């Protein structure tokens, strides 16, 4: 039997994964489920591409990293546009099925926390939101202990003559990455001397800005929908989300903007 489009993409199993819990079913609950399932698929792709960039950095591959950061930024644009769809839900329509979510919350997205850890925004206390023994908990633990994409970037800079300080190469990998004056000096020199790296650094900044844009749109979506209420499952809602706003992945690239 020939392979079909439906078989290749497992369309029937995919379409069977949406199970509204409201009874009788609230019309808008399907939209809520589909959009968030789509987000999890985009997170899966972002992790896939970020792992690829991490390998490119370690191997010193400039142009493959440039290509992938273009893709990453484009995916983030789509993720931001999906917020427009969710915002067609009014607070009244969301509240019509919100209680059916019980303790489930987007705060518990293991893949999004994986992405944060991979990007160097590591917070061990986020592990408590994934039940021990689950695949999500195991993946997050592994991400906590492994080098982040910023650590791989230090290796990449070393390939290009930047003297990476020992306190960065020997640092505790379970801690969040921090800006460093010596890295900033090395980046400034490369900006001025290597046009291909200037392109890469600008795309990295584009990605960083795109992630912050997504965070902002997500915060405003939550604030618009539930106001100052706590999130589902007792999550801290808008005030917690605001703590990560304007938290750059590559702070050293932002720190030298005024000098370029």
UniProtKB/TrEMBL annotation:
One Pfam assignment: Trp_dioxygenase
Assigned keywords, A-Z: Dioxygenase, Heme, Iron, Metal-binding, Oxidoreductase, Tryptophan catabolism
Names of required cofactors: heme
Cofactor annotation remark: Binds 1 heme group per subunit.
Positions with a binding annotation for heme: 218
Matching SUPFAM superfamilies: Indolic compounds 2,3-dioxygenase-like (SSF140959)
Pathway annotation: Amino-acid degradation; L-tryptophan degradation via kynurenine pathway; L-kynurenine from L-tryptophan: step 1/2
Catalytic activity: L-tryptophan + O2 = N-formyl-L-kynurenine
Enzyme Commission numbers on file: 1.13.11.11
One GO-annotated biological process of the protein: L-tryptophan catabolic process to acetyl-CoA
Residues at which substrate binds: 32-36, 98, 232
Molecular function (Gene Ontology), one example: metal ion binding
Entry coiled-coil feature ranges: none
Role noted for this protein: Heme-dependent dioxygenase that catalyzes the oxidative cleavage of the L-tryptophan (L-Trp) pyrrole ring and converts L-tryptophan to N-formyl-L-kynurenine. Catalyzes the oxidative cleavage of the indole moiety.
HAMAP family on file: T23O (MF_01972)
PANTHER family membership: TRYPTOPHAN 2,3-DIOXYGENASE
Summary of subunit composition and partner proteins: Homotetramer.
Family classification: Belongs to the tryptophan 2,3-dioxygenase family.
Protein name: Tryptophan 2,3-dioxygenase
Gene name of the record: kynA
């Amino acid at each position: 039997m020939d392979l079909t489009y439906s078989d290749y993409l497992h369309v029937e199993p995919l379409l069977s994964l949406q199970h509204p819990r409201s009874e009788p079913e609230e019309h808008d609950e399907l939209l809520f489920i589909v959009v968030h399932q789509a987000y999890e698929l985009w997170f899966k792709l972002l992790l896939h591409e970020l792992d690829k960039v991490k390998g490119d950095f370690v191997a010193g591959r400039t142009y493959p990293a440039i290509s992938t950061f273009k893709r990453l930024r484009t995916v983030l644009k789509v993720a931001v546009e999906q917020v427009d769809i969710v915002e067609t839900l009014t607070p009244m329509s969301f509240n019509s099925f919100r209680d059916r979510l019980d303790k489930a919350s987007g705060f518990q997205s293991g893949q999004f926390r994986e992405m944060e850890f991979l990007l160097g925004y590591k917070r061990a206390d986020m592990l408590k939101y994934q039940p021990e023994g689950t695949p999500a908990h195991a993946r997050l633990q592994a991400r906590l202990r492994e080098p982040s994409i910023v650590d791989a970037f230090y290796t990449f800079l070393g390939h290009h003559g930047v003297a990476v300080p020992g306190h960065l190469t020997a640092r505790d990998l379970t801690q969040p990455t921090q800006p460093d004056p010596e890295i900033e000096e090395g980046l400034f020199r490369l900006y001025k001397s290597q046009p291909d790296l200037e392109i890469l650094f600008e795309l990295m900044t584009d990605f960083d800005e795109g992630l912050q844009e997504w965070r902002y749109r997500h915060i405003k979506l939550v604030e618009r929908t539930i106001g100052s209420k706590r999130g589902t499952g007792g999550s801290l809602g808008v005030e917690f989300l605001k703590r990560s706003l304007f938290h750059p992945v590559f702070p050293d690239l932002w720190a030298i903007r005024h000098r370029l």
